[in-house]
Amino acid sequence: MRWILTDSLELWADAHEPGPDTLCDVSRFNEAIDQAVAESVHFFSLESERWRNVFLGVLGHDLRGPLNAILLTSQLIFQLSEGRAVSDVTARLIRGGERMRRLLDDLLDFSRASLDLGIPIFPANVDLAVVCQEEIELQRLALPHNVIELATEGPTQGLWDASRLRQVLGNLVANAGKYGDPGTPITVKLLGDDDEVVLSVENTGSPITAAGMESLFDPLQRGAHRDAETERTSLGLGLFIVRQIVRAHGGLVSLSSAEGKTTFMVKLPRMPSE
Questions:
Q1: Is 0.90 topped by the overall pTM?
Q2: pLDDT in tens, 159-180
Q3: Cβ contacts of 233 within 8 Å, gap of 6 or more
Q4: Distance between CA atoms of residues 44 and 149, nearest Å
Q5: Which run of H or of E encompasses 240?
Q6: Which residues, listed in sequence order, are joined to residue 150 by a DSSP beta bridge?
Q7: What residue numbers bound the domain in which 92 lies?
Q8: Has residue 274 been placed in a domain?
Q9: The dihedral formed by the CA atoms of 245, 252, 232 and 49, expressed in degrees to the nearest 10
Q10: Same structural domain for residues 19 and 107?
């Protein structure tokens, strides 16, 4: 690049006699070169980011095939060996595989959102109270040291993707279990009216700073956690995916944290726009 600029300046100097406007012309030339370099660097950065996301998407997709084969084989072995000593080992293998599958699902959702493809949803008439109750039962098994409470008020039916909203609630409850005070209750509330249903998840713990709240929904961001194992097995995509799913439903997600309480609030219209 340096040689090209030098040659261009020499050619321009040979073709023009020095005059009162020479300094202005050289300044304009330098400005044009600076702008061209800046645009080239910006384009290169965008292309590098795009192809990185394509690579992550392809990698996540290709890994799901052999992982599903491992899980199916492990489940078959578990069923055949139930009640024997090997069943405990197989159960741990299944749990590890399920965790890996959730990580791959998060990676694929992140790649789609980063490539502006959006997260696909398939709405149907569902009762959000039933959806939340089913997910909470699973989370109680995953978080045995936390009491998870569910309170509902008003109508909770609407046109939503039940699987995706279970993913939203699962991420929010898991986040509350990770970063809330150990052993404290996690409160899930549903409040419905004629137009929307508000889902909130509240936990007790150290408040999140204003600076932390601004970046918490960004991808690959994680809060400080006591458990190093949790940090190694988390991609920092949970809250980013929560926001993308809620947006796909035409809703909003917000966060408040003060006086030892942190609350995530999800507002979902009953009839999402197209």
A1: no
A2: 999 988 998 998 899 889 888 8
A3: 99, 103
A4: 49
A5: helix 238-248
A6: 188
A7: 1-118
A8: no
A9: 70
A10: yes
